[in-house]
Amino acid sequence: MDSPNSLVIETHNLSKIYKEAQALKDLSLTVKQNSIFGFLGPNGAGKSTTIKILLGLIQPSGGRATIFGQDVQRDSVEIRKRVGYLAQDPRYYEHMSARQIVDYTARFFYRGPNDLLEARVQEVIELVGLEDKADRPVRGFSGGERQRLGIAQAQVNYPDLLILDEPAASLDPMGRHDVLEVMEKLRKYTTIFYSTHILEDVQRVSDTVAILNRGTLIAEAPISELLAGDGASAIYDISLKSEAGTAVAEAQSRVAVQPWVQHLSMLPEDGHINWQVSVTDEAAAEDLLLRLILEDRSLKVMNFGRKTYNLEDVFIELVGKENSK
After folding, report:
1. How far is residue 179 CA from its own chain's centroid?
2. Cβ–Cβ contacts within 10 Å for residue 170, how many?
3. Which one of 105, 165, 264, 302 is least enclosed by Cβ atoms within 10 Å?
């Protein structure tokens, strides 16, 4: 049995070369059990190539990868017994119903007792929210419903790892919402590794994010760390109000001289004074920054908190730096 903190996927210097083009360069990443791991990058970054290697569909040119501690080349058949997969554009027999399609899939891949197969089919249909349409032909399904049906197929064999290739890429906002909701439900049952270029989706559901650009891994971290900034300094957004003309300037002097304050910028806006304070010691800032400001009781702090970043800002900055090299 895998321990709760064990690694499900590990890659070590994984590379793939197609003729003269290098699609993947020395990729090393780790995916923890029961996480939702967002594999992010622009089109052509190497996301699908990585997934094909993990599934044993193509061979790497160099390096190695393991799933459940087993080598993806040597133990591919055994690994796939524990993996569910949804392609970016799943295709179905249009005349069949959702129930018939999941049942058909289950008869190949379901690992439970035969007498419980029908119950398992119903269970995954309900899990993805298709119970009201289970017996309708899929030709009338929306894009989101088709993707949810694909997840039901991939989940029918109780996989320990679910690999989804761009699961919401071509969906409208409602369809994307439904697919992400299903992914969040599945968190307690399995580990999810999914590729995407939709930054908003990653920020909503992922625990950990890896960013790939032109075949190279340029970032891998918990989503909270990526959204906190570059880690070299923390930035605090502070909004102040004061009726005493010198109070803000005096507070600025008290703060600016602290050894852990890197930079303080100030901008008046709508009757408030907004500060951005860059600090090199977050613990000191949490302990002292607000106290230093409030030494003067004529000052009112309307807002105080560490600045967080939108994933789109982080992504554009990281990819931009990489492309400028």
Report:
1. 14
2. 14
3. 302
pLDDT band of 233, cuts 50, 70, 90: low
Between residues 242 and 121, which one has the greater pLDDT?
121
Give me the percent of the chain exceeding a pLDDT of 90.
49
Helices 143-155, 98-109: inter-axial angle, 10-degree rounding:
30
pLDDT at 7 over 50: yes
> What's the rounded Cα separation, in Å, for the pair 149 and 142?
11
- Distance (Å, rounded) from C-alpha 67 to C-alpha 161? 9
Rounded Cα–Cα distance for residues 288 and 311 (Å): 29
CA distance linking residue 41 with residue 93, whole number of Å = 32
What's the pLDDT at 4?
45
Structure tokens at 61: 């040119």
Q: What is the 3-state secondary structure (H, E, C) of the chain?
A: CCCCCCEEEEEEEEEEEECCEEEEEEEEEEEECCCEEEEECCCCCCHHHHHHHHCCCCCCCEEEEEECCEECCCCHHHHHCCEEEECCCCCCCCCCEHHHHHHHHHHHHCCCCHHHHHHHHHHHHHHCCCHHHCCCEHHHCCHHHHHHHHHHHHHCCCCCEEEEECCCCCCCHHHHHHHHHHHHHHCCCCEEEEEECCHHHHHHHCCEEEEEECCEEEEEEEHHHHHCCCCCCEEEEEEEEECCCCHHHHHHHHHHCCCCEEEEEEEEECCEEEEEEEECCHHHHHHHHHHHHCCCCCEEEEEEEECCCCHHHHHHHHHHHHHCC
